[in-house]
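=== RUN LOG ===
request id: a7f3
mode: sequence -> structure
chains: 1
length: 485
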Amino acid sequence: MATTGLKAPMQRVRLDEDERASVADPPSGPQRLRGWVARRPGRAAAAVVATVVVLATVVVGAPRWAADQERAAVLGAAAFPGAVRSLADPPGVRWTTAVDGSVVPLLVGDVIVAVGATTAGRQIVGLDVVDGQQRWSVSLADHPAPENVLCRPLEGHLACVVGPAPPSDRRVLVPGDTNGDDGTAVLLVLDPVDGTVLHRSDIGGWVVATAQAGSDLVVATYAWGMLTVRRLDPATGAVRWQTQRWSTFQSASNGRVSLVAAAGLVLAAGNDVTLVLDAASGERLPRPAGATVEDQTRLLEDGTLVRTRYRLRDAGVDAISQLSTGRGEPWASVRGVLVAPTVSDGSSGLVFAAGGLTSGGRVRAYDRGTAEQVWLASAPAPEVVVDAAGRVVLRGGGALVGLDAATGKEAWTHAFGPSIGRAFTDGRRVAVEHDTSDGTPVLSAVALDDGAAAWEVPVPAGTTRVVRLGSHLYALGDDALVALR
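=== RESULT ===
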């Protein structure tokens, strides 16, 4: 019979330090990386190069991507022509640069064209629309004196007429007198991208206004009692046609000329002369039956020719405006002086006219198709600043008045004071210039639908007015341009 013995008990055994050290620790990450580099130096070098390329792309590409996004936003279209991209938030200062504020800048592509002044004289400058940095400059010679600078975009180019201002008081400037300076100006055609001067030619006479007809430039000049309207080929300076008319232009103060080209017509009006011309030939168009030289004539941007005749009644002065294409008899007559909205989305289908003293200066709305009166505003506000999104906003008496476009009923009124200035809209809000009670110039916005206050911000220091370039607002002063975003 076998006998079973007891198992030996477990005992704690102490390990030697030498034995513990003999077990190798696993390599760390850096150790493994160094080993891999030692075994495969070619692949390691390629990996380093790839990493550097990726980092460089991020460092360089990220700011460029952000700049491209900002450029796309700045150049993006508004809801309709003449509107601002957005007035949802109060605008802040994006950049400020020195300019000559006597000449309103204009936007051509992604370049803001302005006039600058240096110790060497005046110059035309091109500013980047995103950051305001100067891209190029064109110095203006002392002769002819660069007192007047009139620039406008023409088919991808920039046409600038530079010359002396009309004399402030020269009684010798009467018909038949040809003694002295005739105010010759120069036409510069520039590439707006880099400022390259593509063409230069002289224009005789003091230039008082310019307009665009197709790809050509129309220029109104005055010299020795004669108002001259020319259509020029900007690429060569060649005169396609010119029309002249005697005029009593005796000083700069009484010699302002309005020059408009639209729908195959050119209108030059000012002082004692009104010329309605065929844009293709320069021939004068005959006045319709019953029209007189005393009629006030305007050409709207849509090509509507408006002749307004004033008449005296027992209750005061009244006016009748006749609307035509400029050829043939008028297609409609409305009571009052035709008032074109500062900005419109065209959805109301209305034509507006402000009455004289007999109607208290109130605005009448007419159906564009039938010329029948749709409504008469109750508020004595003679200016239409916005016609959009079912609202017609009038300005008068230091207030904006919002009307229902369909009925003319008053929807809201917002008082800003007698200093109320230009108004802007994005189709949902209206922003307006005005001064606060302590005289601080500000820009305030209200909702287009109900007139509720949205925001108010001071106009940047050193500026006096707000202008729209493209779909964004800018503040302009005597010597500064400020981008508002």
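=== NOTES ===
The chain has a mean pLDDT of 85.
The first strand starts at residue 93 and ends at 97.
=== END ===
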